[in-house]
């Protein structure tokens, strides 16, 4: 009974994610570009998106399982590493929009670009051979912490740019403080 409850909870989480992704795809892709009535009802499109996501997700998970040679790592470890690496920059960008509305757009873009070398270092500079010239720069972080390192690098560079904004060397985001701009904390 406990195993059935765990499986039901996992299915509930997975199908909710797939259905919400299908709705986003319908609203952002299909309805935005469709002119006039469609030849397929929206519910059919939603079901096709959901089935495609299910097949794609199963295929990616099978590929991850088969591509990992060392048995000590689980598929979830690989997923957390990839999700942390990919989500590190995105999470940092959300934090910047929330915490630093005065940051100019070019500063946010520069901060996102600054995460790329950090994420590449944390992802690829691992398990280097002893005679490698890159051995001194091997990443000591746990793979799940790579995304956090990228986010911290983004926030650090944005903080430096915000110091320039505060000192008057850099122009602030012109939308900051306006009603149609991001919210400001007073």
Description:
- The chain is an all-alpha fold and 186 residues long.
- Helix content is 67%, strand content 0%.
- The protein is built from 5 helices and no strands.
- The protein has helices at residues 2-33, 42-67, 75-99, 105-124, 146-167.
- Helix 3 packs parallel to helix 5.
- The longest helix has 32 residues, at 2-33.
- The mean pLDDT is 81.
Q: Which features characterize this protein?
A:
186 residues, 0% strand, mainly alpha
Largest sheet: none
Global shape = flat
Strand content: under 5%
Number of separate helices: 5
Please state the average pLDDT score. 81
Number of strands: 0
Note the run of SSEs as H and E: HHHHH
Category from helices, strands and their pairing? mainly alpha
Distance from first to last alpha carbon: 52 Å
Radius of gyration: 22 Å
Low-pLDDT stretches: none
Which range best describes the helical content: under 10%, 10-25%, 25-40%, 40-55%, 55-70% or over 70%?
55-70%
